[in-house]
Design goal:
Elements lengths: L6 H4 L32 H8 L4 H10 L5 H10 L5 H7 L5
Helix pairs in contact: 4-5
Length: 96
Amino acid sequence: MELSLRPEDVRGRRFFRGRGCDNCNKSGYRGRLAIFEIMSIDDDMRDLIMKEASTNIIREHARKRGMRVLRETGMMGIYEGQTTIDEVVRETVAEE
């Protein structure tokens, strides 16, 4: 599966799939859920940017400081029943 979920990731969790009705125009979805990445800029990050560090180095530094990538934020929405696996896979890319 594209999300690389392990049995321990899904144990005890419920997953949902959009069914469609008149209220959602048969799409199975109503409204929008924002998924986002927020990267804090600390002194070390500022130095990396100024030194034109590679994207991978900057991403690694940000992740060590707690940044969640889009797919991780989407996974939280799946676990909370706010969106579906299909939507997260469609709207995000896997980490390299």
